[in-house]
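forwarding from the other thread:

> can someone predict this with fe (ii) ion?

sure thing
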Amino acid sequence: MVRLGHISDLHVSDRSRYPRNGFTARECEKHSARLAKGLLDALREVGVDHLVVTGDVTFSGESREFERVADLLRPFAEAGKLTVVPGNHDVWTEDAVETARFLRALGPDGRGMKKAAPSYPHVVPLGADAVLVALDSARYGDDPWTTPGRLGSEQLKAARELAREHAKQGRAVLLAFHHHVVLPPERVDSDAHVARMPLADADQVVRLVAEQPIAAVLHGHRHTAFRVDLPGAEGPTPVLCAGSASRVADEPVRRARAYVYEIDRSGVRSVEALVAGLE
Ligand SMILES: [Fe+2]
Ligand SMILES: [Fe+2]
C-alpha cells in the first residue's frame, strides 16, 4: 500500500505587484499561501510517500511567484517525493513561456532544471504496486481566458503505451494533469470561467480510460473538489479534482484541501481529505 498526497491550484502571488497580466490585486486575495503551507505541513505530519501537485502553482506565471512555490514545496522536492505539472496560469504570459519559467524553477520533480527540456510524460514509480504518469496539458494562447488545455497526440500515445505496459506488470496506473476531463453539471454555472478553458482532447482521455486499465485520473483547474467516475476498462475509474489548496472560501466544496489516496495493485483503496482549518 502506498500513500499519495494530491494538491492543486496554489495560485501563489505577490499582491504588491498587481494589477498585472489582466488581474487586479484584489483577485490575489482569493488565495492564501498560508492555507497551502498549512496543508503541506499537515501532509508531512500524516506522512505520504509521494505528493503530486496538479498545476496552477502561480497566479500569472511571474518569476517571484515560481520562487515562492519552489520554497513551499522544497521539503517534498528535497526528499525526492514530489511531482509537479504546469497549469494554464503557469503559462499565462508569453514571457513565462519563452523563458520556460515553470521548468527552470520547478520542473517535474520540483527541483528545477538548469536547462529546460521536454519533461512529460514524467513517470514516477509509487512503490512496487503503482505508477504515476504525469502529463502536461498547459498551453499558451494569445487570449489566456479562452485558451483550452491540450495533451496532444504524442503524450496521449505515450500514456496509452505506459498504461498497457505497467498494467501488464500488475501495477495500478494513475494519470495526473491540470485540466478537467468532465464537468459535473451542477457546478457549471458557478464555474463559468473555467468552463471556457476546457481540455480540448478530453474525449481522447475518456477513450483511453475506457480502453486501458487506468486506476485513477487526478487533476485540478476547477477550484472545487469533486469526483466523477468514468466507465473504465476494468470498472468505474475515479476522476478526482482536488480543488484549490489555497482558496479562501466558506463554501464547503471550495475550501482549501489536500487529498490523501491509499493505493495498491487493485487501484485507489481510499480517499481522505485534509481540509484547511479543520485538522
Ligand atoms: Fe486554477
Ligand atoms: Fe487552471
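The first helix runs from residue 25 to 28. thats all i got for now
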